[in-house]
């Protein structure tokens, strides 16, 4: 099994990047990622004015791009995440949280807390353990023309910080350049919706596969498929607009691939679709819309892309 290591971390998504390797469609491979601070905060004394300034300029280093054989512009690539394991303790930069607006708490970060992980649990203190549920904060394909910071998000996905992007999920991403060019990074040990304050940042080992597919005609934003749910992800300057776009994208998905009429999709989603926050901490805010697959009719469309 090929393993891709973070020897040449990228801090942007760019069509100018040469692939660090290639995988065949459906080939299982492993990716090793650094934490989003590139290990500057492995211990509390690592948080200094100098290291903080470096991290602000070099946040969210990602491993990649990894080319997928046969992926061509205009297609999508389905990235199946089979395993996701922490390889480092969790590092949390903690804010004083004194400002009236939580939007300003990020500017009050002043120390680091390191959290041990073992046997699927995060230690918060003596006899205080909470479940770990690792997720991939940054998963992206190479854009076609622009170079963007890896901390950013958009139609290529990127730094959306959605808990749905975890082991057992298949993420459907657009292909803009030959080979797709996959980037992985910014993994967390666990994370609540929103990212109003920092979550435990970890290095990780990801095992998965990828395969190119025809792009669904209605797909405008990334999609996530699990055995239980369908989710669409959208990022916009307005969280309200991001959530509305994610809702619209899910409605079109149900119409095209589950063969529902517009009326049927609207009624079903009014009953059982859930708009939630991915993150509100970045330049663009991320919304997501999910529906439980048990609510869907049993049709041939159910097999499309997962």
Please characterize this protein's 3D structure:
The chain has helices spanning 49-57, 239-257, 262-272, and strands at residues 2-4, 12-13, 21-23, 29-33, 62-68, 75-86, 90-95, 109-115, 117-118, 121-125, 128-131, 135-141, 148-149, 153-154, 157-159, 170-174, 182-188, 201-202, 204-214, 223-225, 229-236, 273-279, 285-292. It is mainly β. The chain has two domains: 2-70 and 82-209, Acetamidase/Formamidase-like domains (Jelly Rolls); 223-303, Endonuclease I-creI. The strands form five sheets. A nine-stranded mixed sheet has the order 1-4-19-6-16-20-21-23-22. Strands 3, 5, 12, 14, 15, 17 and 18 form a seven-stranded mixed sheet that branches. The relative contact order is 0.18. Mean pLDDT is 95; it is low at 301-306.
Give me the secondary-structure topology.
Blueprint: E1 2-4, E2 12-13, E3 21-23, E4 29-33, H1 49-57, E5 62-68, E6 75-86, E7 90-95, E8 109-115, E9 117-118, E10 121-125, E11 128-131, E12 135-141, E13 148-149, E14 153-154, E15 157-159, E16 170-174, E17 182-188, E18 201-202, E19 204-214, E20 223-225, E21 229-236, H2 239-257, H3 262-272, E22 273-279, E23 285-292
Parallel strand pairs: 1-4, 3-5
Antiparallel strand pairs: 2-13, 4-19, 5-17, 6-16, 6-19, 7-8, 9-10, 10-11, 12-15, 12-17, 14-15, 16-20, 17-18, 20-21, 21-23, 22-23
Helix pairs in contact: 2-3
């Amino acid at each position: 099994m090929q393993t891709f290591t973070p020897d040449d971390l990228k801090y942007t998504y760019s069509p100018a990047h040469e692939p660090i390797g290639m995988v065949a469609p459906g080939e299982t491979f492993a990716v090793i990622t650094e934490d989003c601070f590139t290990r500057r905060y492995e211990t509390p004394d690592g948080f200094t004015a100098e290291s903080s300034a470096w991290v602000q300029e070099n946040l969210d280093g990602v491993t990649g791009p990894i080319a997928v054989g046969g992926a061509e512009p205009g297609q999508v690539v389905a990235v199946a995440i089979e395993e996701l394991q922490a390889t480092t303790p969790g590092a949390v930069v903690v804010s004083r949280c004194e400002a009236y607006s939580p939007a300003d708490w990020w500017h009050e970060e002043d120390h680091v807390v390191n959290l041990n992980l073992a046997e699927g649990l995060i230690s918060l203190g003596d006899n205080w353990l909470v479940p770990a549920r690792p997720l991939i904060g940054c998963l992206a394909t190479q854009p076609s023309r622009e170079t963007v910071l890896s901390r950013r998000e958009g139609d290529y996905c990127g730094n959306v910080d959605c808990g749905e992007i975890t082991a057992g999920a298949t993420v459907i991403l657009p292909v803009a350049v030959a080979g797709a060019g996959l980037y992985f990074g910014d993994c967390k040990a666990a994370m609540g919706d929103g990212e109003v304050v920092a979550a435990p940042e970890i290095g990780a080992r990801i095992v998965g596969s990828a395969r190119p597919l025809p792009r669904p005609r209605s797909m405008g934003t990334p999609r996530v498929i699990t055995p239980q749910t369908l989710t669409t992800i959208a990022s916009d300057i307005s969280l309200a607009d991001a959530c509305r776009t994610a809702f619209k994208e899910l409605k079109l998905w149900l119409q095209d691939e589950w063969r529902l009429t517009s009326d049927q999709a609207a009624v079903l989603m009014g009953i059982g679709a859930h708009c939630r926050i991915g993150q509100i901490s970045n330049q663009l805010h991320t919304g997501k819309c999910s529906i439980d697959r048990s609510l869907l009719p049993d049709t041939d469309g159910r097999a499309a892309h997962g």
